[in-house]
Design a protein that fits this description.
The protein is α+β, with helices and mostly antiparallel strands. Helices cover about 45% and strands about 10% of the residues. It contains three helices and three strands, in the order ββααβα. A three-stranded mixed beta sheet has the order 1-2-3.
C-alpha cells in the first residue's frame, strides 16, 4: 500500500506491499516461504536457519525471521532509493525484525 500524502516529500509503504511486489517476480517454487503467512513459516526452517540467534526456541520465530530477511532485502533497496530522492519514507509492517530496524537506523539515521 502506498498512500499519497499532502507533502510530496513523504512516502508511506507497507511491508505487505513489498511482499506483494516480490511475489509478482519470484516464483513460489523458488521462494515458497513468501507464499505463506508469517505465522506458518515453521515448515521452511532447517538447522542452517537457526543461525539467526540462540534466543528463539520456536521454529515459527525462525521461520518469521527467514521470511522477513528476504523481504528486508527488497525493502532496503526501496529505502535507499527514497533517500536518494531526498524524500522521507514511513514504513509499517510486521516484516521488519528488530535487527533490521537497528541496522537501518545505524546506516541512515531517523
Amino acid at each position: 500500500m502506498q498512500l499519497k500524502l499532502k507533502n510530496d516529500d513523504i512516502k508511506l509503504i507497507s511491508t505487505d506491499a513489498v511482499l506483494s511486489v516480490i511475489t509478482n517476480y519470484l516464483m513460489e517454487k523458488d521462494e515458497p516461504i513468501l507464499y505463506v503467512p508469517s505465522f506458518e513459516c515453521a515448515e521452511f526452517v532447517d538447522e542452517n536457519d537457526k543461525r539467526f540467534g540462540q534466543i528463539w526456541e520456536s521454529d515459527n520465530l525462525y521461520g518469521y525471521l527467514k521470511q522477513a530477511s528476504i523481504i528486508e532485502k527488497y525493502l532496503e533497496l526501496h529505502i535507499m532509493n527514497t533517500i536518494d530522492q531526498g524524500k522521507t519514507l514511513i514504513v509499517e509492517g510486521v516484516h521488519m525484525a528488530p535487527t533490521f530496524i537497528f541496522k537501518m537506523l545505524t546506516h541512515y539515521g531517523t
